[in-house]
Amino acid sequence: MNDMNDAIPSKKSLVMRMTREVLRVLKLSWRPLLLFELVYKLLTIGIFIPLLSALFNQILDWGGYQAIANHDVIRFLFSRHGMVSLIVLAPIAIAIIYTEFAVLVYIAYYSIQGREVRVRAVLMKVLIRLPKLGRIGLLGLAIYLLLLFPLLDAGFGASLLPGILIPEFITNELMKTLAGLLAVVGFFVFIGAMNLICIYALPILVLERTQRFIQVVRRSAKLFWRSKFTLLALLAEWLLVSILIVVFFFILLVLFIMLTMWFLGENFAIDMALGMIMSLGLYTLSLLLTPLFVIAITRVYMEYTEPADYAADEDGIDPTYWICEKGKKQQVKKQGGKLITMIMLLCIALGWGLTTLFASEQPAQRDEFILMAHRGDLSSGIENSMEAFEGAVQAGADRIELDIMQTKDGKLVVIHDENLKRLTGHDIPIYDITWDELQHIPLQDGEQTSRIATLDEVIATFKGKTKFTIDLKPHGYEQDLVASLVSTIHKHGIQDEVYVQSTDYEFLQEFRAAAPNIKIGYVMFAAFRSLHPYDVDYFAIEQSFISSRIIASAKLLNKPLYVWTVNDIDSAEHFYKLGVDGVITDITADIREHINLLH
């Protein structure tokens, strides 16, 4: 074995020394790693994302799309303009993500050998290899870099696409049935297994000779199987290290709070300590996690491969050297280390400052923050039941959000699912059963039981106690649905107390024509670009698609924006501080109590 392998301990000692080995490599390479990650993240925010957004918006303009939402997203993807956007944007995104990972792999590879590298030289090595990505297979790279690895969402990833979250409204609905729960669990097990199989894909792609992506996957799978116990030991070590880090930061936080309380006062000290330590800690972790992951995987990869497998130096570029002007070379060599360290620390401080500045959300000015109880209060009763609505009123909801459908004989009933099976056990579509028949079928969820109510009954019972948000759920067999709903609202005289919303924009426009004095809202489970093309009074947008651009668009239109379905306190506070006008939630009481503390 060559000198490189002399620096690598034997397999027996590797298991016990892996964390120390990673730290040894990090000690040698922390400056180029952190400096590159910081600069690349800033480039991503300042250049790459705006560039991709501009290209995407230009393609939308060519296609005449002022905005796309809900089912229009699927139609767009399968249109020729959608195909063009994939063909144009995917290779650019692949190149951006590959460049970041490749630089980190090269730095880790040479640092493991005990060689200090120059980021510019390494970047040149990567850029030279970029044209060869086409030989590997863009489809395979796209599946791995743009889908499979981001779906892992393990806290580390590319700056451009750190993670992909499955919208909660999909997973939450699926997990309400056993089959759906098994599907969700199976999906995430599959994603985890595929990422384990491809765990060495990055170092193989970067360090070995160009080969087809399917060959990369096969080779990674073989290496994974050989190194599985080492990876398991590494995971165990890192779990222990993580616990120690958490304990260390907790002790540090307590000490910092005590010191600041002593000098500055109790409330100010706690707020400042939590803010500073949390923001600095999270920012530092965001810079370190991906490099640490790359170092660890590259380190294990090199343990289970032979030097003959590597092609890293075939391009003739020395990663430890960068040509300087003759007169400056000696001075740079003499002072370079101190200069780079100082610049890096200044950049980190600047980056942290900018991050803190943009993250230091202050409660936006608004008349009120509306809490809509999503299908009522689920701790009080089955969703969309009278008990759940009563619980929502007691929990302090500003509005109860309820779903309505029509039965076979045209009766408006309060239910979410088109099929009764999930909550009744009867496999019957709602449009195939009459109201008289439906009254004899009880609702059951666990130990809770109830019955299906009519819209008339809900309004009559809770009118004056709360306001209503009625979500239209068209099933395609409606009988004058809009006319029936308008008639029911006017009969109870709640025109000023009710919102009508739906994911079906055409139904909303039909309702607006029939009742222009009643406010309507467009429920969006996917939303891109501006909101201005939609003739509605407010927007209810799934939380995955909430962005500063979307919020600004709603503010410019002077129309409220509500977020659904927000089921944790931190997310509710986050959206509150972003300036949205309210949330649709299953935990009304908890969020109400927390929001009151923020006033």
UniProtKB/TrEMBL annotation:
<dbReference type="Pfam" id="PF10110">
    <property type="entry name" value="GPDPase_memb"/>
</dbReference>
<feature type="transmembrane region" description="Helical">
    <location>
        <begin position="274"/>
        <end position="297"/>
    </location>
</feature>
<feature type="transmembrane region" description="Helical">
    <location>
        <begin position="339"/>
        <end position="359"/>
    </location>
</feature>
<feature type="transmembrane region" description="Helical">
    <location>
        <begin position="181"/>
        <end position="208"/>
    </location>
</feature>
<keyword id="KW-1133">Transmembrane helix</keyword>
<dbReference type="InterPro" id="IPR030395">
    <property type="entry name" value="GP_PDE_dom"/>
</dbReference>
<feature type="transmembrane region" description="Helical">
    <location>
        <begin position="33"/>
        <end position="56"/>
    </location>
</feature>
<feature type="transmembrane region" description="Helical">
    <location>
        <begin position="133"/>
        <end position="152"/>
    </location>
</feature>
<feature type="transmembrane region" description="Helical">
    <location>
        <begin position="86"/>
        <end position="112"/>
    </location>
</feature>
<dbReference type="Pfam" id="PF03009">
    <property type="entry name" value="GDPD"/>
</dbReference>
<keyword id="KW-0812">Transmembrane</keyword>
<feature type="domain" description="GP-PDE">
    <location>
        <begin position="369"/>
        <end position="595"/>
    </location>
</feature>
<dbReference type="InterPro" id="IPR018476">
    <property type="entry name" value="GlyceroP-diester-Pdiesterase_M"/>
</dbReference>
<feature type="transmembrane region" description="Helical">
    <location>
        <begin position="229"/>
        <end position="262"/>
    </location>
</feature>
<dbReference type="InterPro" id="IPR017946">
    <property type="entry name" value="PLC-like_Pdiesterase_TIM-brl"/>
</dbReference>
<protein>
    <submittedName>
        <fullName>Glycerophosphoryl diester phosphodiesterase membrane domain-containing protein</fullName>
    </submittedName>
</protein>
<keyword id="KW-0472">Membrane</keyword>
